[in-house]
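Hi support team,

I've been running sequence recovery on a batch of backbones for a student project. Most finish fine, but this one hangs at about 90% for roughly twenty minutes before it completes. I'm not sure whether the input is malformed or the queue is just slow. I've pasted the structure tokens below so you can try to reproduce it. Let me know if you need the job ID as well.

Thanks,
M.K.
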């Protein structure tokens, strides 16, 4: 037998003599032809071809070798032949612990090893495949030799002969146990989270990046009177918010959907029956990860009743302060004034008689007058705004004059049109906001001038305090935000809002916007 030698063309390390030069077309074609000769089949005579064909594996062997490399259980069974014609890949032993021979020697072993909870479903699906010819695609459990439960995803088909008679079944079953375990763990975690959301007393709302409601826990249903089915897919500002708050919430939402930092705010939700509920919200962005979209998760606490109690406590406190201030002014103040007149008359009589006790009487008059002054100061501190509609304007005008006298800086109060505030509690809160803003500016901003403005338009009032000091950053750092917190709290208690911003070109601008209530 002759030995056929394959002549392989020699390939230089560099087929082109000079890499820095671009080869010509003819030279490039010659190199490519030499390379192609490496993969050209050898030329064999008839004897050599016969021997090569005898040594080459047949098509069935190639197919079997390919199947046995697949990391899945491949099976085939003829419906008109015996079990000896059936086939199952070696993967059956690696997955279930049975050899191919053991598995094939019992034609009903596969059905016996199916998990009891899945047998009926598998039987119905297999019957449908036999009757309709549709592929069987299903996931079910099989019990291995050692008792382990293995999840399989099976894809099987039934082939028919040309005359329509069933011929054979072939398919493939993949072990998906790991994936199923992960799914079960995720489901347990999902159930745990859902249980928390359903039992927690806080309101929990999940919004998509368009502001539409995706999740609405039972606490929200209880507060609003709407069910999850009624609100799902609707924008939160179209359903619960008043028109004047809807635009403000849209602006907040634009910040929430792009900022990873938690956002805190308050909004008034309307229930199904139109009742307003004040909710304190905290929102967090759950960013997209490539497969899922971003979500905004908001948790809220209904603070309506708490706010009512706080308002009631503040009103009681303010009322008691006003009562004490009024008692000091009208009671103790008048009493001391009477003593001062009597002491002054006694001093005059002693002086007429040239008695030495006249000097002591004069000292008594002086001390009593000082007590009267301190009493009036205490009364004005407890009752800064008198019980009349113009009381706030008078109090702010007097405070501006005192600031100029005490601190030697320019402080003006401006009010182009009278702003009548009939609610003494509202006027008192506004006075304290203005006073706190002025004190902050003096203590931390070193201004040369301060302006206090009061104005009203279309049912809303505006209190503005402007200074030309160092600016808002210095005030925040020096005051640790406590003064700003107090002003915000007072503004919220009268149904208003507070805005603190950098002045132009310098200084700080404090703006309190509040609703005006008409006198009953």
């Amino acid at each position: 037998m002759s030995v056929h030698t394959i002549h392989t063309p020699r390939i230089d390390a560099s087929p082109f003599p000079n890499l820095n030069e671009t080869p010509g077309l003819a030279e490039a074609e010659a190199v490519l032809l030499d390379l192609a000769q490496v993969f050209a089949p050898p030329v064999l005579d008839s004897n050599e071809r016969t021997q090569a064909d005898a040594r080459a594996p047949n098509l069935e062997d190639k197919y079997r070798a390919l199947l046995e490399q697949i990391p899945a259980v491949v099976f085939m069974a003829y419906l008109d032949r015996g079990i000896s014609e059936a086939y199952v890949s070696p993967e059956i032993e690696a997955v279930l612990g049975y050899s191919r021979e053991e598995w094939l020697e019992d034609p009903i072993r596969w059905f016996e090893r199916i998990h009891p909870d899945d047998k009926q479903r598998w039987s119905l699906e297999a019957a449908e495949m036999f009757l309709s010819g549709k592929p069987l695609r299903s996931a079910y459990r099989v019990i291995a030799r050692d008792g382990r439960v293995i999840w399989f995803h099976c894809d099987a088909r039934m082939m028919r002969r040309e005359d329509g008679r069933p011929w054979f079944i072939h398919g493939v079953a993949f072990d998906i146990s790991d994936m199923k375990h992960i799914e079960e763990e995720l489901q347990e975690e999902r159930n745990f989270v859902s249980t928390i959301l359903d039992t927690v007393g806080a309101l929990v709302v999940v919004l998509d990046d368009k502001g539409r409601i995706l999740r609405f826990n039972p606490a929200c249903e209880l507060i609003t009177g709407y069910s999850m089915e009624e609100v799902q897919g609707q924008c939160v500002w179209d359903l619960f918010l008043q028109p004047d708050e809807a635009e403000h919430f849209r602006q907040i939402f634009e910040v929430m959907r792009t900022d990873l930092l938690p956002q805190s705010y308050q909004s008034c939700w309307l229930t199904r029956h139109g009742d307003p509920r004040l909710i304190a919200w905290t929102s967090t962005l759950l960013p997209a990860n490539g497969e899922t979209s971003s979500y905004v998760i908001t948790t809220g606490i209904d603070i309506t009743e708490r706010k009512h109690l706080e308002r009631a406590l503040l009103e009681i406190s303010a009322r008691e302060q006003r009562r004490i201030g009024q008692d000091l002014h009208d009671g103790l103040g008048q009493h001391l004034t009477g003593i001062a007149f009597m002491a002054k008359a006694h001093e005059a009589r002693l002086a007429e008689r040239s008695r030495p006790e006249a000097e002591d009487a004069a000292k008594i008059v002086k001390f009593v007058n000082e007590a009267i002054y301190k009493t009036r100061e205490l009364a004005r501190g407890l009752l800064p705004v008198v019980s009349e509609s113009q009381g706030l304007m008078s109090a702010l005008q007097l405070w501006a004059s005192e600031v100029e006298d005490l601190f030697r800086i320019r402080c003006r109060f401006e009010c182009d049109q009278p702003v009548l505030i009939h609610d003494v509690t509202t006027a008192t809160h506004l006075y304290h906001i203005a006073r706190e803003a002025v004190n902050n500016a003096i203590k931390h901003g070193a201004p040369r001038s301060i302006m206090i403005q009061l104005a009203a338009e279309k049912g809303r009032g505006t209190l503005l305090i402007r200074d030309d000091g160092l600016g808002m950053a210095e005030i925040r750092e020096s005051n640790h935000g406590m003064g700003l917190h107090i002003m915000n709290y007072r503004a919220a208690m009268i149904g208003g809002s507070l805005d603190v911003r950098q002045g132009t070109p310098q200084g700080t601008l404090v703006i309190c916007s509040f609703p005006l209530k008409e006198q009953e």
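--
Follow-up from support: It reproduced on our side and the slowdown came from queue contention, not your input. The radius of gyration is 46 Å. No action needed from you.
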